[in-house]
Amino acid sequence: MRVPGGSSSMTLAIGAEPADIRFASTTNKPTVPATIRTPMTTTATFNTPNALPLLVPPVPDPIEVVAGSEALGQRTDRFLADAIGALSRSRVKSLMLEGAVLRDNVALHDPAEPVRPGSVFVIRPPASVAARPEPQSIPFDILYEDADLIVLDKPAGLVVHPAPGNEDGTLVNALLAHCGDNLPGIGGERRPGIVHRLDKDTSGIMVVAKTEQALATLSAAFAARTIGRAYLALVWGIPTPSQGTIEGAIGRDPRERKRMAVVGRGGKSALTRYRTLRNWPVSITLVECVLATGRTHQIRVHMASIGHPVVGDPVYLRRVPAAAKTLTGGERAAMLDFPRQALHAAQLGFIHPRTGGSMLFQRPMPADMAALIRTLDGDKADLNDNLDRTSAVLY
């Protein structure tokens, strides 16, 4: 590897056969109401108090590992983690899924791929990110707030927390601007106060913790599946039966690692209950989905697995659905050109972490989804009707 000016290089021999496995690295010198329903909304736009500058860290040099004969048949992620030492197996796995691990100059994405002696692995860790995101003035709707938590309505298009490719302009940046010194450090510097997530292009209700106690209590409630969550989704076709349970473990799609899928082994258990609220014969159905678990892309994966993908889904809608042929030209264009998954977190219920009071929040679907229904109904839809159809009891 190349050693930049002002740096020194060192090579470490690792394992029983130092000649076969080598690790090259570079060292650089240099009071809450008991129950709340449909609360008033405040749109918050915040100034940025005490914004901290983000330093751009250097990109780490590549790490090269040569597999010796004793590595034959080992899982690649375990082998590399053991050989390098400085990276955990889960971190190596993440890097592989991101395409940052090469084997013989070809990206290797399968962490379980058996090692072949003589293979040369190159790991290219991305530049480290700033520990503390920068407060930024970004508007979002606050449904409720007290000293312990914030309940908000996340708009579609807003990423929840910083990650590679989205280092700023996220909900966390907005929360830091709003909460000032009360929020940083809660739940980890990169994701302060985040108890659960919504996908970037999914809209709807979220709860964010403002104290360590609230974070721990709400996180435990999510893990124990005592949080009630109901979503509204427009899906292609007419689900049969009109209501039911979809149960299937979710894991990485073995054929396309950036997608999730219902898998036979290696996934995490997942259960979604759905019921039909409305349908437009043969073509489109408005469903309510209630989560018993909270896996990545769960509703999107489960609905696609039974042949009814979410309208507009850029990942799990792979071809023009047959149901599209039953729509008029304008309807078909509106559905096929919808720029995001038509999925909205419409209802959230939980027990307040400090007072023990029951909290229930509801939000109608946003304007873009309501516009799809108007198109299907010939502009005669009751835009608030969808909210009244959601479950009165969260199950």
Q: Would you give an account of this structure?
A:
The radius of gyration is 24 Å and the shape is globular. It has 395 residues and is α+β, with helices and mostly antiparallel strands. The protein folds into three domains: 7-30 and 59-123, Structural Genomics Hypothetical 15.5 Kd Protein In mrcA-pckA Intergenic Region, Chain A, CATH 3.10.290; 31-56 and 128-224, Pseudouridine synthase, CATH 3.30.2350.10; 228-388, 2-Layer Sandwich (Pseudouridine synthase). A hairpin with a 3-residue loop joins β8 (140-145) and β9 (149-154). The longest helix is centred in the middle third of the chain and has 12 residues, at 212-223. It contains eight helices and 18 strands. α1 packs across α2.
Total DSSP E strands? 18
CATH third-tier fold name of the largest domain: Pseudouridine synthase
Structural class: alpha+beta
The Rg value, from CA coordinates, equals 24 Å
Helix content: 10-25%
Global shape = globular
* Uncertain stretches of 5 or more adjacent residues: 1-56, 386-395
Q: What number is the mean pLDDT?
A: 81
Distance between the termini: 56 Å
Residue fraction in strands: 25-35%
What is the annotated CATH architecture of the largest domain? 2-Layer Sandwich
Structural domain count: 3
Total DSSP helices = 8
- Report the top-level CATH class of the largest domain: Alpha Beta
Largest sheet: 10 strands, mixed
> What's the SSE pattern?
EEEEHHEEEEEHEHEEEEEEHHEEHH
CATH homologous superfamily of the largest domain?
Answer: Pseudouridine synthase
